[in-house]
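2024-03-11 09:14:02 INFO queue: dequeued item FadR family transcriptional regulator, len=238
2024-03-11 09:14:02 INFO validating residues
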Amino acid sequence: MRNMKIETEKGHEIVGRLILENITRGEWEPGAKLPSVVELSARFGVGRSTIREALSALKATGWLDIRHGGGTFVKKVLPSETAQGGASPFQEADSILELLEVRKILETGTSALAAERRTEEDLAKLSAILDRMNISLQSNDTAGGEQADVEFHAAIAEASRNSLLTQLMGSLAQRLGETIGKTRELWFYQQKSTSERLLDEHRSIYNAIAEGDAALASQLIRDHLNKVESTLRHLTEQ
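2024-03-11 09:14:37 INFO prediction written
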């Protein structure tokens, strides 16, 4: 007889499922503002930290929009029922994994070449993007931070001075832009990490490229993407 691993749902997973059910059956319609964390805590009989974890998970998978100081809202455009399958809010992790695997193969190479071939102009561009990432962080501009993140990785490909690699990264731009927000949120949620830490990792990659250390630049990119991949694989195995 094959051994089976039986796991019970965690508190935030139960709450997340219940909130998702309320959304899908129309209690909270697209664009509607959810009750406060305090109100949800009382409604579901759990602590505020459990509510925040549930909301973060649903934000990560496209169901909610959490506005700093403005409350939590149901997304105006909801993920498709087909994509979600009516099950766990982490179902999209599978499709994101495929893109992430391609990124890991591609970007470890582009970062190594960038460290060997980058110009002062390339470094200035990367540095300017990091500055924008920092400004977005300080102003809680989530969209701006995500856009800067996409541009940072594209700029590394450009610095490789390999037109085919640049084109390959460009061909992924749309999908990368569509998923990077989700991968960032899932990483923050699972790793209990912060935007500051994510910015520091990008700065470390920049420094390795600036110092011409191809091996280190490649390894830092790999480590950076491995963390996200580890999170996604954990979610798909739940």
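2024-03-11 09:14:37 INFO annotate: The first strand starts at residue 64 and ends at 67.
2024-03-11 09:14:38 INFO item closed
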